[in-house]
């Protein structure tokens, strides 16, 4: 039994509750770690531990990562 199997887009998408095309887009945009295994260019794979670490560092669902936060000062003033 392998405690840290290699996963493809389908398995990763299922873990993240998104479609595989979303994971491909994250990779293309540099928002996903580089593959741990690249047997052929169109079949990258990642260790489960890599995916779990990425999932733990993701912002919450629906969080906008393409916008800067503006500092509006203390709302209590």
SSE topology:
Blueprint (H helix, E strand, L loop, with lengths): L5 E2 L1 H8 L3 H9 L17 E2 H10 L20
Antiparallel strand pairs: 1-2
Helix pairs in contact: 1-2
Describe the structure.
This protein is 35% helix and 5% strand. It has 77 residues and is mainly α. It has a domain at 6-57. A two-stranded antiparallel ribbon has the order 1-2. Helix 1 packs across helix 2 (20-28). The mean pLDDT is 86.
Question: Order of strands across the widest beta sheet?
Answer: 1-2
Q: How many strands?
A: 2
Given helix and strand content, the structural type is mainly alpha
Largest sheet entry = 2 strands, antiparallel
Rounded average pLDDT: 86
Question: How many angstroms separate the termini?
Answer: 59 Å
Rough outline: globular
Beta fraction: 5-15%
Model regions low in confidence, pLDDT < 50 over at least 5 residues: none
Helix percent band: 25-40%
H and E order: EHHEH
- Rg to the nearest angstrom? 16 Å
Oligomeric form: single chain
Helix count equals 3
Could you provide a short overview of the structure?
The chain is mainly alpha-helical.
Key terms:
35% helix, mainly alpha, two-stranded antiparallel ribbon, 77 residues, 2 strands
């Amino acid at each position: 039994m392998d405690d840290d199997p290699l996963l493809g887009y389908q398995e990763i998408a299922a873990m993240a509750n998104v479609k595989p095309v979303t994971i491909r887009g994250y990779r293309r945009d540099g928002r996903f770690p580089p593959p741990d295994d690249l047997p052929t260019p169109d079949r990258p794979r990642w260790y489960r531990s890599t995916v779990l670490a990425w999932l733990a560092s993701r912002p919450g669902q629906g969080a906008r990562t393409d916008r800067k936060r503006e500092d509006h000062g203390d709302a209590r003033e």
